[in-house]
Design goal:
It is built from five helices and four strands. By secondary structure, it is an alpha+beta fold.
Length: 205
């Protein structure tokens, strides 16, 4: 009986050992979760406020004198191709004369320039002493009044450019500044009238 009990005990120990080892080496009956290779991390730029242009929609526009993509500056568009006559007779000077008349005759404040200190001069004709493109857009004029030719005055006239279907054109003018210049002229009234008589492009406004 003792021998049988010892055999039973040994069988039980062996069985436990076999079961224990088997449990460590036996594959799990449940499906194992195999980790898939990680996807590359993509850095996505927020394009909420950015217009995305597909390559096939890009259009190459050949530069032209009147095209907004020509690379010309605004003042090139304003004054490109001007002749000497254009500088003596143009809509910038006409706008300045109109501002003088509207303020003197009707009290209309011209654009944003203050002419109150110069109202007594505005009835007089003026001559153009110098004209040049203004860095911030438009024309910078230096003028003198014929009845007081030694004093000079500076005017800044901005011109507005609109782009319609790629064609840029000047559509209007604004007198943005008018003030007495620090420079003076040595010309007399008689000399100015003589210059005007000899040069048809020069005139009084």
């Amino acid at each position: 009986m003792q021998t049988n009990a010892m055999k039973y005990t040994l069988l039980l120990i062996i069985s436990l050992l076999l079961y224990g080892c088997g449990s460590r080496n036996k594959p799990s009956t449940e499906t194992e979760q195999i980790a898939e290779p990680a996807e590359p991390i993509a850095i996505v730029q927020d394009t909420t406020d950015t217009e995305v242009v597909e390559p096939e929609t890009l259009t190459i526009i050949e530069p032209t004198a009147n095209n907004s993509t020509s690379g010309k500056s605004s003042n090139d568009i304003r004054f490109g191709g001007w002749t000497e006559k254009d500088w003596h007779d143009n809509d910038y000077i006409r706008h300045l004369r109109k501002c003088f008349d509207d303020y003197r005759e009707n009290g209309v404040i011209p654009d944003i320039a203050d002419l109150q200190d110069y109202k007594s001069l505005l009835a007089n004709q003026f001559f153009m002493y110098e004209a040049q493109p203004f860095l911030l857009g438009g024309m910078y004029l230096t003028i003198g009044f014929i009845n007081d030719p030694h004093a000079l005055y500076d005017a800044v006239i901005y011109s507005h450019i609109e782009d319609v279907a790629g064609i840029q054109t000047v559509t209007g003018f604004t007198l943005t500044g008018f003030f007495k210049s620090e420079s003076t002229s040595s010309l007399t009234k008689e000399e100015i009238l003589e210059i005007i008589q000899e040069n048809p492009d020069v005139k009084l406004w």
